[in-house]
Specification:
Length: 548
């Protein structure tokens, strides 16, 4: 491949060879969305060939990886070949999609730290402003609180504390300060660059924190190195000023990547609906509805029903957040019920509306009508600008504390959960009642538990506390825990059972599958429409209420 003289467009080795040993390297990436995979792999190839740069510390706004992609490929090679010279440590909000990064952390082979996604996104912006870090109430009373674990994931992290969380008192109130050294290298990604280095992101699924990562690297007296991966280069003037995400003077080098190392998301090469190049009509979005009636859809419907009630209560449309897992499926129920005029879903990575994707593609949305930069999206959540959020859960204790994803002897990270759950005025934790091998059907308006899951999710002791119910009650948050067979409400005295599914025996199917007994007074049957084929009829219900 040839490169034009007098431009910033260079081959990867020319750019990456400027990275010094011991650098802190900031990498954009929400799973594979905005991940500069080509730069990452070329950087590791350079180390394997020359031994430099070595002793690198990587930080990211989320995780620049998916299984067998991006950083996970590097971690796998490091782990299998036992050559630990390249990598000193990581600060990633989520490592669930990188099995080998988890292994390196768990076996204490590298320093391991984790902060919430929103905190990391803001941290890059705060560092760019020359401030000491992020001051927030997010994380109080959880494993992020330094009185507990402080986001330190292993002994090396506890010993070195390269990145740390400090308890601060301000006007008699407790806050957490997330702080650490600024990056001196930034590896970012866009779609098109001009020869001045201006970067446009027209084919990317999100905008992420790309601009702020570049700014953080350039902040202060030590001006860091910024390298951008793109798919193509256009002559200067080929990008309109308002289309520029990162101005060229902030970027030192541009590297053109092959399409196979610049996928839009983990499993999608390019979809114009995800990029926002095409905005589908409401009739076109009907393809996103899920026709299979199962326990997951029952839970998603129950969440959508609660959100519809908010619309009717307030007499206006509402803004919501949907987390990973079953909550993401609420968007499909909203589409299927044709209530997109009343419920506006957002995904933490930046999209508004559309059909939120699942698994390693989470973060992308097909057919969004707006995509914000990630720090601005998270302002919606901590600031309580949204009306409600639905988030997943793995464990819940009798106080109502929640662990969304942390399994014993495994490292995942909190993702966006702590910020969203801290700020949303209403939270609907959504998940199936048990886990493991099970056979549960939704048939003829009934919930049939042929074989229940052996893994209990309502437990006495959490693996980690990631949302603290006491802090939520102090803020006046309204909280419900929604499953396919029972619905609970948070009270100052713990969980209260308020609804039970049709055909369910409370003792056999609920209490015997909990390690604690909830408050049981009066309760109702869950809405029978949730367990029947066809639409629930939420649109008609909302429109009738709003006409009154």
């Amino acid at each position: 491949m040839s490169y034009s003289k007098g431009t910033k467009v260079v081959n990867p080795e020319e750019a990456l060879s400027k990275i010094r040993d011991g650098s802190i390297v900031a990498v954009s990436g929400f799973n594979m969305l905005t991940t500069p995979e080509y730069l990452l792999l070329k950087l590791y190839e350079l180390y394997k060939r020359t031994g430099h740069p070595k002793d690198l510390f990587f930080i990211s706004d989320t995780l620049p990886a998916a299984p067998n992609m991006g950083f996970d490929l590097i971690a796998k090679d490091i782990y299998e070949n036992k050559d630990y010279g390249f990598l000193r440590g990581v600060l990633f909000p989520y490592v669930g999609w990188s099995e080998y990064t988890q292994k390196l952390i768990l076996e204490n082979l590298i320093e391991g730290y984790t902060w919430p996604i929103g905190i990391m996104a803001w941290w890059f912006r705060e560092v760019a402003c020359g401030r000491p870090g992020v001051l927030t109430k997010v994380g109080l009373g959880t494993f992020l609180d330094p009185r507990y674990e402080g986001g330190l994931l292993n002994d090396l992290a506890r010993e070195r504390k390269t990145y740390r969380v400090t308890l601060v008192s301000l006007d008699g109130e407790e806050y957490l300060l997330y702080k650490g050294p600024k990056p001196n290298v930034a590896l970012i990604r866009g779609t098109t660059a001009d020869e001045m280095g201006n970067v446009r992101m027209e084919e990317e699924g999100i905008l992420g924190t790309v601009l702020n990562i570049a700014q953080a690297s350039k902040a202060g007296r030590e001006k860091g190195l910024v390298v951008a991966q793109v798919l193509r280069v256009t002559p200067f003037g080929g990008i309109k000023p308002k289309e520029v995400t990162v101005p060229g003077p902030l970027i030192d080098y541009i590297v053109i990547a092959p399409r196979e190392r610049h996928k839009q998301s983990a499993s999608i090469d390019y979809d114009p609906l995800i990029a926002g190049v095409v905005i589908p009509s409401k009739s076109m979005t009907a393809y996103a509805s899920s026709n299979e009636l199962n326990t997951r859809k029952v839970v998603a419907r129950r969440v959508a029903l609660e959100m519809s009630r908010l619309v009717m209560k307030f007499g206006r449309p509402i803004i919501i957040n949907l987390g990973i897992g079953i909550p993401a499926e609420v968007a499909r129920v909203v589409l299927e019920e044709e209530i997109t005029d009343y419920i506006f879903p957002t995904v933490e990575s930046g999209p508004w509306g559309g059909d939120a994707l699942y698994g390693a593609d989470f973060g992308a949305s097909r057919g969004p009508y707006a995509i914000l930069h990630m720090p601005d999206q998270f302002a919606l959540y901590e600031g309580g600008i949204i009306d409600a959020a639905s988030l997943g859960f793995m464990q819940i204790n009798e106080r109502g504390d929640v662990n969304p994803s942390v399994v014993a002897n495994r490292v995942t990270g909190p993702g966006g959960f702590p910020v969203i759950s801290s700020g949303s005025p209403r939270i609907y934790f959504a998940g199936e009642f048990t886990a493991g091998d099970r056979d549960i059907e939704v048939k003829n308006g009934q919930l049939l538990i042929n074989k229940d899951g052996p893994v209990l999710k309502f437990v006495k002791t959490l693996n980690k506390t990631v949302w603290n119910a006491s802090e939520g009650l102090k803020k006046g948050q309204e909280v419900m825990y929604i499953t396919e067979r029972a619905v609970f409400k948070l009270t100052p005295n713990g969980l209260k059972l308020i609804e039970v599914a049709p055909n369910i025996d409370i003792e056999k199917h609920i209490l015997s599958k909990m390690e604690f007994k909830p408050i049981i007074e009066d309760y109702e049957l869950m809405d029978p429409r949730l367990f029947k084929e066809g639409k629930v009829g939420l649109k008609e219900e909302i429109e009738k209420a709003l006409r009154r």
